[in-house]
Design goal:
The complex is a heterodimer of chains A (133) and B (215).
Chain A: E1 6-9, H1 10-13, H2 15-24, H3 43-64, H4 72-94, H5 102-128
Helix pairs in contact in A: 3-4
Chain B: E1 3-6, H1 32-58, H2 71-74, H3 77-102, H4 106-136, H5 145-176, H6 186-211
Chain lengths: 133, 215
Amino acid sequence: MSDSTDLVTLEEAGTPAAGAIDEIAPAGDHSPVGAVEHSHPGPRQYVLIAIVLVILTAVEVATSYLEGHVNSNLIIVALAIMAAVKFFLVAAWYMHMKQDSAVFRRLFVSGIILASIVYGILLLFFSSTVLKS
Amino acid sequence: MTQAVVSSGASELEPTPAYGDHRHATNTGVSNSKLAIWLFLSSEALFFGAFISTYFLYRGRDATFLKGPTPDKLLNIPFTSVTSFVLLMSSLTMVLALAAIQRGDHRRLRIWLLATCLFGATFIGGQLYEFTQFYREGLHLGTNMFGTTFFVLTGLHGAHVTIGIIWLLLVWGRSMQGRLPTEKSEAVEIAGLYWHFVDVVWIFIFTAIYLIPTH
């Protein structure tokens, strides 16, 4: 064989060659971080999500006017659930968390969970001690 | 049949450019730029969480919270509902801009980007109008704890929306100059992720400040 570079097939190059390709491009289905992404939804689905978001916002505003007629705690729970659903819809469909790599989802959800824990503790601690003293 | 370039002596391989549309030749297998924006957004969740928590911490508990103009007399829920609707619609136009560039429709990309900026500017205009009204009613940053927590939280969110508008205008400018080909659609996707996050944050601010009963 000459010193010049020759084109050969992977099959001809044998198993070590296939392994080398994996090292160069570790983004396959067997990637350790599960970096598989799927195609994004189309405009029709985006418009449908927007309609749902608008309806939810209208229901939220209507719910806030029930103050004085319904238990305040019930209103707060209902509003929190609707806000969470709206958050999920935007994050999952518009930010493509549903279709994109799980790495992004894990990163973002970690931040949300961390924030919830830190500020949950802060609210519990300060509301029961500092502000009452 | 897949082919690779093999050096005759050391059997070294050069990478074949046969990745799928959404796969990247990085250690993680995902785009570094997208990884960076998601990390940034994750840190932004902690940033806004601090100010939303502070608002709840003082809401109705501190005696100074209601000294001066009170939230129930100042807050205009119908008006803010309209501006919230406008911001929600900007998320739709943003994602339509991304869909347009991904299918190579650059004309529609620019239209949707401008529509997003217009919606964003309308939201900011509404916020400035609201701030002016509150100021005339006697609510300043230091009037009471409501004034402090309200202006800081909504003001910081407004600053984020303004940065988003500038970012989208820069993307629009790149597209106008022909420097945003379809294969660089990730630039629109990253700007869009920031924009949607700002929208998501408003969903919680709107609920926390305007909708949850004060008493």
